[in-house]
Design goal:
about 140 residues; 3-stranded antiparallel β-sheet; 3 strands; about 10% strand; rod-shaped
Length: about 140
Amino acid sequence: MSASSIRVQKMLQTYGRHLTSAKRLARFRQALLGEKKNHKAQDARRKEWVQKIATEIIENIIVKGSQNPLILEIMDALEKQFDAKIMLEYSLNTEEIIILKTTNENSVELQGQERQEVMQSLWELTLAKVDATML
C-alpha cells in the first residue's frame, strides 16, 4: 500500500465518522424539536382545561355557593384582598351578576371599576388555584 492510498483511507474513515456524528446530531435535534412541539401542544391543552374548570367553579360560586374547600379558599383569598365579605349572585330580573361587598358598617352593590376588579381578581385567583391543584 502506498502512502497516498493510506492517506485516502484515513481521510475516508474520518469522513465516515463525521458523517455518522452529523446524522446523530440531526436525529437529536429532530427529537428536541419534536419534544418542544409536543410540550407546546400539551401546555395549550392544559391551559384550555384550566380555563374551563375555572369557569365552572365561578359559575358554581355564583349560582349555588359551595362548601367545597377549594371554593372556600378562593373566596377567603378574594375577601382578604378586598378586606370585606363578598357575595356573588345572579339578579332575578336582569340575569346579571350582582356583587355585594359587606363590611362591618354596611353592604354595598359594587358597580363600575370596583366590580370589574372583583371579577378580575376572582378569575385570577380561580385560575391560579385550579392550575396549582390540577395534575
